[in-house]
């Protein structure tokens, strides 16, 4: 018997059709044509209902399309077929994180870590999930696992610092953030954590300085807001005003920024200090040669806690 | 002013730091730690304009190449993402390097399923590593279905065919590559070498002539063309080509040796000896020395030939060709012992027919 050319390659012609459907679905997905991707994915699933890769792809399509419950269901189905799939567990955990189901997200990482105990991605993501759940000690343990495998992991140091910050262990937090910034001086998250640390320590000079550095990398309304508050404490009403205005431009619904703006306007009526070239204003250090030669050191000493 | 190093910035005293800031056009005023940070920032950015750091995938790829496939596997596993087939390819390669061929095949297949057609080529390599050359060719074909003009795919297919013994098919694929990519001059040369290896000397000479026309300074192509002509029986042309090659690069003992072999084939043993002696001076190799000894024998210089065979035996004490030559040229010795000769139990000793040694074929063309 002679098979037609399209069947000659395989004994089961459906295998070719399945692969073609998967490929077409993938291509449509890459193009952003979610409807077309889903249509082709349906064909693949009809041909082989127990095909984990098809269910995974379906999950990704749903996720990109904003249908997170659908995505979770598809990922779960893929994992029922192949419980060893690292990709499946990460995808499921990630979808669960999107809808704030952190407890289940953590469980998904636990399952993944049973299969791949050295998965850095799983450890760091599990740490983040535990952080969201308020289990900061658990989160720190996860970051320690990462750091045992890769001590130069700046994100793990930064996250560990954030967890210590939540635990009010400011000295430990500062050490971790220092480490992260030493490893990656342009690491935005570490800078943001440093801003929060100084804000908590009521050190407006340092808060402004580090917020400025972070904002040079990436704008975030909350950072502008924190910077604005720090300027208010330093008596710099114009700079505070500008910071709140920028925060409102990025997030017009921010009530805090609006309130801050009002405070800055009110302060401007009475005081508005101009720091000039001294970006370190508010961080006076007795005995420092730069501070000794500073033209505004009297005022700086007043506002430095 | 040249840029200070980060260590200099780190340890500079206050006046030096201020000077550095001023020279670099930075604000020198403020708390010393802040000024130091300002200078360090600028130095870091200038020193590393694009601060490249090896990502995990880079580290994993390097680990595979450095011979740590087990570590590479772990790192690749940690880089696996939902939409990217590349880590699966890297993981497959690491698994293959670590000897887990079955796992490698699964990983590479996953990459193919995720829509990376080039993973087929990696699969082909994995199949070939397991000795399944037919499977490797099929994987190349699968890739070439969608990338018919891809040079790497064509090359790999040709190589696997050749390794599988399908030299004719391999040559055909190379010919296709030459037609599809006339802009790649090396392809013509490779095709010429392939034809030479498959014993199609006339065709090889023709193709290599084209390669030489494209790059007249390509000594390898000229040398191989000479070999092809010599093997095709066009000895005079071969001599001309070898001489042209030596004019471009006189330091090629392989070409000089082949020139000697060509002279010998033409019945000019003295010229052959001259060429081969120079070649042997440039590079004392067994093959060149054996060619020289044959030429010396043909030129009626048995003493010199015997000496040359001895030289070969110093390089390789049990070289059968040199031993045979030495035996052939040794003066007959009188037996000093008397006594009974023991015959083999299997029967009487046979006398081997002595055959005249033929001149050596040219050296193998460079691949």
Describe this structure in words.
The complex is a heterodimer of chains A (305) and B (367). Chain A has helices at 5-8, 13-31, 34-47, 52-64, 68-81, 86-98, 102-115, 120-133, 136-149, 154-166, 170-183, 188-200, 204-217, 221-233, 237-250, 255-270, 289-292, 297-303. With 305 residues, chain A is mainly α. In chain A, α4 runs antiparallel to α5, α10 (154-166) packs antiparallel against α11 and α14 (221-233) runs antiparallel to α15 (237-250). Chain A is elongated. Chain B is mostly helical. Chain B contains 20 helices and no strands. The radius of gyration of chain B is 32 Å and the shape is extended. The model of chain B is unreliable at 334-367 (pLDDT under 50). The A-B interface holds A 19, 22-23, 26-27, 30, 53, 56, 60, 86-87, 90-91, 94, 116, 118-121, 185-186, 209, 277-280, 283-285, 288-291, 293-295 and B 14, 27, 29-35, 41, 44, 51, 56, 74, 77-78, 80, 82-83, 110, 113-115.
């Amino acid at each position: 018997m002679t098979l037609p050319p399209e069947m000659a390659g395989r004994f089961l012609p459906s295998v070719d059709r399945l692969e073609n459907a998967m490929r077409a679905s993938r291509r449509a997905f890459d193009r952003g044509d979610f409807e077309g991707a889903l249509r082709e994915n349906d064909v693949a699933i009809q041909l082989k209902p127990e095909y984990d890769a098809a269910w995974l792809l379906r999950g990704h399509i749903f996720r990109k399309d904003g249908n997170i419950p659908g995505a979770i269901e598809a990922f779960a189905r893929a994992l029922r077929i192949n419980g060893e799939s690292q990709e499946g567990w990460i995808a499921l955990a990630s979808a669960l994180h999107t809808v704030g189901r952190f407890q289940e997200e953590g469980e998904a990482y636990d399952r993944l870590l049973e299969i791949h105990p050295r998965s850095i991605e799983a450890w760091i993501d599990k740490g983040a999930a535990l952080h969201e759940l308020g289990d900061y000690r658990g989160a720190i343990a996860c970051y320690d696992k990462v750091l045992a495998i890769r001590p130069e992991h700046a994100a793990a140091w930064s996250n560990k610092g954030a967890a210590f910050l939540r635990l009010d262990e400011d000295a430990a937090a500062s050490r971790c953030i220092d480490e992260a910034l030493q490893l990656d001086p342009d690491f935005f998250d570490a800078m943001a954590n440093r801003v929060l640390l100084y804000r908590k320590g009521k050190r407006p000079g340092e808060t402004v300085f580090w917020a400025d550095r972070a904002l040079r990398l990436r704008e975030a309304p909350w950072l502008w807001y924190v910077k604005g508050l720090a300027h208010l404490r330093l008596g710099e009403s114009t700079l505070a005003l500008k910071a709140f205005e920028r925060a409102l431009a990025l997030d017009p619904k921010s009530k805090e920024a609006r309130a801050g703006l009002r405070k800055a306007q009110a302060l401007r009526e009475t005081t508005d200090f101009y720091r000039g070239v001294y970006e370190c204003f508010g961080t006076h250090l007795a005995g420092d040669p730069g501070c000794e030669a500073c033209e505004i050191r009297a005022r700086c000493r007043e506002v430095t806690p | 002013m040249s840029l200070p190093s980060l260590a200099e910035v780190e340890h500079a005293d206050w006046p030096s730091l201020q000077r550095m800031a001023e020279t670099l056009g930075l604000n020198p005023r403020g708390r010393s730690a802040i000024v130091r940070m300002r200078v360090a920032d600028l130095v870091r950015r200038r020193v590393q304009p694009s601060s490249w750091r090896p990502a995990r995938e880079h580290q994993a790829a390097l680990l595979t190449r450095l011979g740590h496939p087990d570590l590479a596997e772990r790192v690749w596993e940690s880089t696996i993402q939902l939409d990217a087939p590349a880590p699966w390819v890297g993981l497959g390669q690491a698994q293959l390097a670590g000897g887990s061929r079955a796992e490698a095949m699964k990983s590479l297949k996953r990459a193919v399923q995720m829509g990376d057609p080039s993973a087929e080529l990696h699969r082909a390599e994995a199949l070939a590593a397991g000795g399944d050359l037919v499977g490797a060719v099929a994987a190349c074909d699968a890739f070439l279905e969608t990338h018919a003009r891809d040079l790497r795919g064509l090359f790999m297919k040709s190589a696997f065919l050749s390794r599988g013994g399908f030299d004719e098919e391999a040559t055909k694929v190379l010919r296709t590559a030459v037609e599809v990519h006339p802009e790649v001059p090396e392809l013509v040369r490779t095709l010429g070498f392939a034809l030479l290896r498959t014993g199609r000397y006339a065709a090889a000479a023709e193709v290599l002539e084209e390669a030489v026309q494209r790059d007249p300074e390509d000594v390898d192509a000229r040398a191989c063309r000479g070999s092809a002509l010599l093997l095709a029986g066009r000895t005079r042309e071969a001599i001309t080509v070898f001489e042209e090659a030596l004019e471009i690069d006189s330091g090629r003992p392989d070409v000089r040796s082949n020139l000697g072999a060509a002279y010998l084939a033409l019945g000019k043993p003295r010229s052959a000896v001259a060429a081969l002696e120079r070649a042997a001076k440039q590079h004392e190799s067994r093959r060149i020395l054996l060619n020289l000894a044959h030429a010396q024998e043909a030129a009626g210089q048995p003493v010199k030939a015997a000496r040359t065979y001895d030289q070969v035996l110093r390089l390789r004490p049990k070289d059968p060709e040199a031993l045979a030559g030495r035996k052939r040229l040794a003066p007959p010795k009188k037996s000093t012992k008397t006594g009974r000769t023991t015959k083999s139990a299997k029967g009487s000793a046979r006398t081997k027919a002595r055959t005249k040694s033929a001149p050596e074929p040219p050296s193998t063309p460079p691949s």
